[in-house]
Amino acid sequence: MNKYIFSALIALFFNGYVNSAQASLLSIQLPNGTAADTTNKGSSFDVGIYISSIADFGGFDFDLTFDSSKLVVTAPFLTSASVFGPGDATAVFANGLSSPGRYHFAETIDILSDTALSQGLTVDLAPLLLGTLHFQALNTGSNSTISIGVHGSNTILVDFDGNPLGTSVQAANVTINPPAAVPLPAPIWLMLSGVLGLAYRAKAQKA
Fold first, then answer.
1. Mean pLDDT rounded to a whole number for the chain
2. Which of 14, 105, 203, 207 has its CA 20 to 30 A from that of 159?
3. Residue 6: left if φ>0, alpha if ψ -120 to 50, beta else—which one?
């Protein structure tokens, strides 16, 4: 084989390996830091939305979907990490519960208000927090999925110029257990033992 062709094939293989190893990932992390966790009915928990391995990151627009019979978004609903700025003249925000079981979350660099910028964010392998959604567990059940989907016909991620960026997404699964049993306090046990003692004494006196 021609050594130049061989070298080109090696370069293409290496480039493909690096690109696949650093593919962009949009993911949901539960309180234990993974995509699967358990919680109790009635309890509250936070869900983090993260992005990793992306260059020239200029904006995102997506929905988080979930089973509204098992989970509900609670105040303060969504806390943005403001990755594109403090939310004044450097970024445009949009978020809100668009329907039961569907929460819309979007942010983008405001190029018109910040002409000093020439490119978007570069995020390495370490996940960058985009925002935190606050949930409460309503009913028991396994595999209550929280997933990321495209909002309307918009692209999930865009670069600084508004061009779509490819990414993979990772959903999360929550198992909701029945409420934990509340143990009776010690004074209740003392009172019960006293009542039983009095009853036994009264029975003994009658005998």
1. 81
2. 14
3. alpha
